[in-house]
Amino acid sequence: MCGIVGVLCADDSSAVGPLYEALLALQHRGQDAAGIITEDAGRFCLHKDNGMVRDVFGPAQLTNLRGSIGIGHVRYPTAGSSSCAEAQPFYVNSPYGITLAHNGNLVDLPTLKRDLEREFRHLNTGSDSEVLLNLLAIELFSNLSSPSHEGTRSVILAVNELLRRCSGGYACVSMIIGYGLLAFRDPHGIRPLSYGRRLAEGSTEHEYMVASESGALNALGFELLGDVRAPRRPPPRRSAGPPAAAPARQGASHAQLLRLGRGAAGARAVFFEYVYFARPDSAAHDIDVVIPVPDTARTAALECAHALDIPYREGFMKNRYVGRTFIMPAQGLRKKSVRQKLSPIASEFAGRNVLLVDDSIVRGTTSSQIINMAREAGAKRVYMASAAPPVRYPNVYGIDMPTSAELLASRYSDEQMDEMAREIGADRIFYQAPPPGRPELDDLRASILEEAAAQGSSIRGLDCSCFDGKYVTEHVGAAYLQSLAQERKANRGDSDTNACHLLYKLDPAPAGAERAR
Ligand SMILES: O=P(O)(O)OC[C@H]1O[C@H](OP(=O)(O)OP(=O)(O)O)[C@H](O)[C@@H]1O
Ligand SMILES: NC(=O)CC[C@H](N)C(=O)O
Ligand SMILES: [Mg+2]
C-alpha cells in the first residue's frame, strides 16, 4: 500500500515535524522503509532508510531536514526489491531538482523502461517509482522549456502527459525546486490521496497537507478539504485540461494548492482501503463466542457478534511491537511474525466452539496459524470467517500479491469450501456473501461507497479485481499476469534475504522494552 505525505508550511515554519508525525500515523501502510525530503533555500535535504519511522529518524536526522516544504514516504515494496536503495522519496536533478514519493504499482513496466532508455534516462534501481519520477522529469523538461508554457500550466501539461503514458495505480506527491508541492493520482483514482489545511500557529496563514489517508490529516489537526481528484479519463496528448494536479508555488499564494484537479467522476478506490462488515450466517447455532483476529478485524468481528447475538471476546493478546504481518516482505517472516504478534488467552478458548473473524484471508498465513493456536488453547471447534469475499486474483496496483498461486482461495471453488477449511485446519470456513439472487459484490460495494460518501469522498466506483479478476487499466491480461508470476518465482530468494533486517528489528525489542518500565 505505502503511505505518502506532502506538507507546505508557512515560510518561517519547519515542515519536518508534521511530516514525521504524519508518517507515524501512516506507519501501518508500510513498515519496510521510511524517508523524508525537505527543501531548504534551493537544496533538498533527504534522509531515508530501511526500517520503521521511529528507527529511521532520530533527533539528528530530523534536525537536518530543514525547510518549510517537504514530502515523506513509508514503504511496502511491490516492485523491485526491499533494498534501502529503493526507499523513497526518489530524486533527480534535471530539470531543476525533482523528488517524488509514490503509492501504487505501474503495469507494463518493461515498455516504460525501454522508452526511458531511448530518452537517455538512467535507472539505478528496479523500482517503478523511479520510472515514474523519470517520466515526470522528461515531461517537465519538454514543457518547462517551451516558451509558451509558463509556470503552473507547464507543470499541469507535464502531469497530464505522464498520466497518458503510465498505466496502473498511482498516487504521488512530488516537489519541484522553485515550483513547490505537486500531488496527483492515476486516472482511475485507484490509490487514495486526501488533502487539507490548518492555520499555522499564531498566524492567519494556512499550511497544507496531502496524505494517503484522512486519518493522518485528522491526527495533526488539518481540516479535510477532500480527495485529490483523479482526472475523468487519461487526458489526450498535450492537452491543458482538465488539470490533474497543480503545484503550490513557494512564495506564491497557497491557494494554488486548492486547485488539485477536477472531474472526479468514476474515481475508483481499491476495496482493500476499507474495512467492512460480515453478515450473520445460518451456521451460528453452536458457536459459543466470536473472537477477532487483531488488529484490523475488530470492527468486523464486533458487528458480526452483535448480529449473531453471540458474546464477543478478545481472545488474543497482541504484542504491540510487532507490526502488520501481511505487508512483510517474505513468507518465512510473515509466518514467524503471526506467532510473535498474537498469543491466545487460554480461558477464552478452553472447551468452547469459537468463531474467529478476520477482515480478509489472503495467503492464509494468519488463519492457519491462528486456528492452530486456538486448538492448542483448548478450543472444541474452530470456525473461521472472512469479512471479505474469497481473494482469488492477483493485485497489480500496489498490493504485493502478484500471483494467484499464492492466494489460498484461488485453489478452491465455492463448492470446495470444506477442502479449503481442511487446508487451514478449520472445522468450517465462511466468507462474506450476498443474499441469494444478489450479484456477488453488490453489498460490499454499496457499504464501502456509503461510508466513503459519508466521509465526503468523491469515490464512485471500486477496483474489485482481487475478487472478480476484472482489471480497470489496459495491459493487464493473461500474458501480463503470467510474466509477473515468472518474475516472482525468479526473485523469491531475494525477498527472503532482504527480510533479515526486519527479523533483527522485531526480535530483541519487545521483552527488553517491557522490562525497562
Ligand atoms: O491471509 P493472510 O495472507 O495472512 O492475510 C490476511 C491477514 O493479514 C492482515 O493482517 P495484518 O497482520 O497484516 O495486520 P492487522 O494487525 O492490521 O490485522 C489482515 O488483517 C489479515 O489478518
Ligand atoms: N506499496 C506501494 O505503494 C509500493 C510503491 C512502489 N511500487 C514500491 O515498490 O516501492
Ligand atoms: Mg490481520
Description:
It holds the Pfam family GATase_6. In the C-terminal section; belongs to the purine/pyrimidine phosphoribosyltransferase family. Residues 2-263 form the Glutamine amidotransferase type-2 domain. Pathway: Purine metabolism; IMP biosynthesis via de novo pathway; N(1)-(5-phospho-D-ribosyl)glycinamide from 5-phospho-alpha-D-ribose 1-diphosphate: step 1/2. Its cofactor is Mg(2+). With 517 residues, the chain is an alpha+beta fold. The chain has 2 domains: 3-266, Aminohydrolase, N-terminal nucleophile (Ntn) domain (Glutamine Phosphoribosylpyrophosphate, subunit 1, domain 1, 4-Layer Sandwich); 276-457, 3-Layer(aba) Sandwich (Rossmann fold), CATH 3.40.50. Helices cover 32% and strands 21% of the residues. It has 17 helices and 19 strands. The protein has helices at 16-25, 53-56, 59-64, 109-118, 128-144, 151-165, 214-219, 298-308, 331-341, 346-349, 365-376, 417-424, 442-454, 465-468, 478-498, 500-506, 509-515; strands at 3-8, 33-40, 43-50, 69-75, 90-92, 98-107, 167-176, 180-185, 194-199, 206-211, 223-227, 268-270, 289-292, 316-318, 342-344, 353-358, 381-386, 428-431, 461-463. It has a 7-stranded antiparallel beta sheet. Strands 5-6-7-8 form a 4-stranded antiparallel beta sheet. Helix 4 (109-118) crosses helix 5, helix 5 packs across helix 6 (151-165) and helix 9 runs parallel beside helix 11 (365-376). The site of magnesium ion (MG) has 5 residues, from loops.
Share of residues in strands:
15-25%
In percent, how helical is the residue content? 25-40%
Number of strands: 19
Q: Tell me the strand order in the biggest sheet.
A: 3-2-4-1-10-9-11
The stretches of 5 or more residues where confidence is low (pLDDT under 50) are 238-244, 249-267, 275-282, 493-517
What ligands does this structure carry? 1-O-pyrophosphono-5-O-phosphono-alpha-D-ribofuranose, glutamine, magnesium ion
- The CATH superfamily title of the largest domain: Aminohydrolase, N-terminal nucleophile (Ntn) domain
Question: How would you describe the shape?
Answer: globular
- Which structural class matches the secondary elements? alpha+beta
Query: Compute the gyration radius: what is it?
Result: 23 Å
Number of helices: 17
The main sheet comes to:
7 strands, antiparallel
Average pLDDT score: 83
| Count of structural domains | 2
Distance linking N and C termini: 34 Å
